Amino acid sequence: MAQAVKRLYPDVKLAIGPAIDAGFYYDFDKENAFTTEDLDKIQAEMKKIVKENLTIEKKILSYEDAKEVCKDEPYKLELIEKHKDSELSFYTQGEFTDFCAGPHVMRTGNVKQFKLLSTTGAYWRGDSKNKVLSRIYGVAFAKKDELDAHLERLEQAKLRDHNKLGRDLELFTTVDVIGQGLPVLLPKGARIVQILQRFVEDEEQKRGYLLTKTPLMAKPDIYKISGHWQHYREGMFVIGDADAYDRGEGNEVLALRPMTCPFQYQVFLNKKRSYRDLPMRLGETSTLFRNEDSGEMHGLIRVRHFTISEGHIILRPEQLEDEFRECVTLAKEMLTIIGLGEDVSYRFSQWDPNNTGKYEGTPEQWEEAQNSMQKILDHLGLEYEIGIGEAAFY
To answer: What residue ranges do the domains of the chain occupy?
Structure first.
């Protein structure tokens, strides 16, 4: 695909193009975004490349030679700098050479069935401070019937997409003059949320949760205590000049809350507590605000303003497993009641010991916490996957 793009649009700069669970994509720096018509042209050129049956050759280059090959590709040069202490592998097919980890098929003729699906914007390296690139998504299969079956599943999924159904059933809408990721619940949708909220809060009360109502915004001071200001500020909506605040200048600054953690712990800290008061279960149906990237907005799944049932439990160490078990039980019961009980999977998100700067706490604290949690998960008999680097900063 990248070779076809360079043939059709020689001035385009190459970024990255990995395989993913849903197929593959490649990011390009192009002056004007790709169109649907562009995708048709690219796919036609890809078919020509397949027919040419070009041999794909691998070469390992030195750091200096790699920079020379990619001297006109700024994104590749940045990647070479990042991986200069590793093996720098290049693959060539015909007139096209790419800096890539591989592996690849032996010849372009080995590629059988493929389809370019869509194009969208994506920040270089996922950082909103960087330039927005043009990303093309696609899929590839060994047989035509496999590709056709996959495309049919995608079409069926579109028909069942909550974004379409929610609008057709008049549950919610979005309005350009309000903004992306800020859905408006219509009367039917608002009524559903009201019923669910009453049900959830009543069930939590039965289980000993104490209801809280905390502010939607606060001064940066509270977020500095929790670590959000240091680790999560880019994901927050800040009212006022945050940089001036950090310098000790300017007027008062407030930030909308991305979660209620620091607020609910202030409920616990409101007065001196005895160990006999524990566990203390705090619950809130909380409205939160997160500064998601505009390109990631989708229906009610990725939004900038949403409401969740959020709880925090302050407890003694020996109470941890029982309380965690009850949390899992409560979540499973809720999901079963609304028909999602069989769709539950578990993922144990852990910190990345090779990137400690993005986390609060010491390595010893993280290891202790994760070891305790893993023992509990195993004791509960839960099947789970592990995600390194996925843990929240705290």
So the answer is: 2-146
What tokens appear for 10 in the block? 């020689």
Extract the tokens encoding 238.
């800040």
Tokens at residue 241, please?
Answer: 């000049």
* Model confidence, pTM: 0.70
Residues constituting the chain:
394
CATH number of 2-146: 3.30.980.10
Q: How far, in Å, CA of 288 to CA of 304, rounded?
A: 8
Phi, psi dihedrals of residue 130, rounded to the nearest 5°: -95, 175
E strands in the chain: 13-14, 19-20, 23-29, 56-61, 88-93, 96-99, 113-123, 132-141, 172-173, 184-185, 209-211, 217-218, 238-239, 254-256, 280-289, 305-314, 347-350, 385-388
Cα–Cα nearest to 379, from 336, 322, 311, 333: 322
User: pLDDT by residue (tens digit) across 344-381?
Assistant: 888 999 999 888 888 888 999 999 889 988 988 888 88
Spatial distance between the Cα atoms of 244 and 263, rounded to a whole number of angstroms: 24
Task: At 175, list the tokens.
Answer: 């309005």
Token pair, residue 181, equals 């990721």
Full strand arrangement of the beta sheet holding 238-239: 217-218, 254-256, 238-239
Structure tokens of 131?
């330039």
